[in-house]
Amino acid sequence: MKIRDLMSYNATRILSGATMRQAADLVSTTGVSDLMVVDEDNSFVGVLSEGDLIRAVMPNFHELMRDGMSLRDAFDEFVENGKEMAVRPIDELVISGDKLVKFRPDDDVLKAAGTMVAKQIRRLPVTDLGGKLVGTISRADVCKGILS
Fold this sequence. Notes:
By secondary structure, the protein is α+β, with helices and mostly antiparallel strands. Helix content is about 40%, strand content about 15%. A hairpin with a 5-residue loop joins strand 4 (about 125) and strand 5 (about 135-140). The protein starts with 12 loop residues before the first strand and ends with a helix.
């Protein structure tokens, strides 16, 4: 079975250069945990996860506790970090380059499923030969396709 048989062609995309606020809004409204980042030509750039967004604004609890800050102070810093980071571009958080795992529609589903399990990835980008994003394949897609 090929990835094209199970993949979703309606990937949730965000443009490179978008703000962290725009990414957070998109994650919230769509319910996806991974955004596919593309450029203006729909060329695949990378992946941004909701976890990456949260980690970017999280205070360093060890440092805060060492400095004698309370949990309330830590929360205030968390909120302040969020306000400051909201207008920053997502590009510094996008997983790209050598860290990026992607597949083509004609790749075997077993190869994608094995990668998802081994690397604990929920959703993988699927690109054409020219590097354009054509969709995604998720663990749910694999489960539905193989087990139903």
